[in-house]
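This entry is listed as follows:

___
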Amino acid sequence: MAHAPSVDALDARLKDFVEGHIHGWGHDDWHTLVTELAEAGYDVSDTRDLGLRLERAHILATLERLAVPGVGAKRRERVADSFASLWHLRQASVEQLTALPSFHRALAEALHDGLARRTGGF
């Protein structure tokens, strides 16, 4: 019996996909990704969950590229836990960002400004 790929391996594949599509992706790209994952032995029956994992990878990769001082790995994780997609994160107000654990107003403003300046290319 074949061993199913791990969740960590799936997250790595999704991160690779996001990094290869920094300007976004369309339906055909999504379909190709799902097909490739299925062929590699991943369970792709829950495409909603898969899509949420992909959006999380998108948020994490974007925040890493933004490189806002003070927003390290732990804070990036908190942000990704709090927003369903990069679109939702970009729509967030400074007040919503300040409400995140360990985000003070200056840090929230820096993240908000960074996201506003980087409307394309992610």
